[in-house]
Design goal:
- The chain has a two-stranded antiparallel ribbon with strand order 1-2.
- Helix 3 (about 65-75) crosses helix 5 and helix 4 crosses helix 6.
- Helix content is about 55%, strand content about 5%.
- It has helices spanning about 25-40, 45-60, 65-75, 80-95, 105-115, 120-145, 160-170, 190-200, 200-215; strands at about 150-155, 180-185.
- The radius of gyration is 22 Å and the shape is globular.
- The protein is mainly alpha-helical.
Length: about 230
């Protein structure tokens, strides 16, 4: 394991990983594959913390970088480590650091990965069709597992209004204290919906079959909740 003074990803901060992707498709494919292979050498116990730090330092940003494609392709090649990549992104959405936009990074790369009309899909069907389906399902299951409702309290009245109302309600014991309205919000639903709309019918069918069988559970094993601190 790398020491705290020299970590495996320190040298990547100024590398082509965080440059705009090459315009040439073959060069882009080669560079993405090289970084995916490089990441794969460091999938130790420390990997989730390392990749989370890279993700937190990268987003939010609307500038497309090669890193966006590498994240999605890494999940394709290593679906067993998919949660290590997706959970930090989910954390950023939940704590409000990152706002979902299907056309912005990193979401566009994940949606493109499952889209049948994309170059990535066409390129991978010959070699990785089964692995590709597994990766798509893994992303959808992780998003669904953590798409828990977040309750936000609607505060439309001022502090003075609330004080007056409380005083009035305390004078009449028959009138219960009015609780602020709590509205549920599921922040991951748009991402799940856009992936399902982009995915072919077989992926959608597998996903809804999974939902009907194990909704509320996660068949692939124990997952740690995303951190929001």
């Amino acid at each position: 394991m790398a020491s705290s003074s020299a970590r495996w990803f320190d040298g990547l901060r100024f590398s082509s990983l965080f440059w705009r992707p090459p315009q040439d498709p073959e060069q882009r494919k080669a560079q993405t594959a090289a970084y995916v292979e490089f990441f794969g050498q460091f999938t130790s116990e420390q990997f989730p913390e390392d990749i989370a730090e890279l993700i937190r330092n990268r987003y939010p940003s609307k500038e497309q970088r090669l890193f966006d494609d590498v994240l999605a392709m890494f999940v394709l090649h290593h679906p067993e480590h998919g949660h290590a990549v997706v959970l930090p992104i989910i954390s950023c959405i939940i704590d409000g650091t990152l706002v979902y936009d299907r056309s912005c990074p990193p979401f566009a790369s994940f949606i493109s990965l499952v889209c049948p009309s994309s170059e990535a899909y066409q390129l991978l069907q010959n070699e990785y069709s089964e692995q590709w389906a597994l990766a798509c399902g893994e992303i959808l299951r992780i998003l669904t597992h953590y798409n828990r409702p977040i309750y936000k309290v609607e505060q439309q009245s001022t502090q003075t209004d609330r004080a007056k109302r409380l005083s009035t309600e305390m004078e009449s014991s028959n009138v219960p204290f009015a609780q602020p309205e709590r509205k549920p919000l599921r922040p991951l639903s748009p991402w799940i919906t856009d992936i399902l709309l982009a995915a072919p019918l077989a992926i959608r069918s597998d996903y809804f079959r999974w939902c009907s069988g194990v909704m509320g559970k996660y068949a692939a094993g124990e997952l740690k909740p995303p951190t929001t601190g």
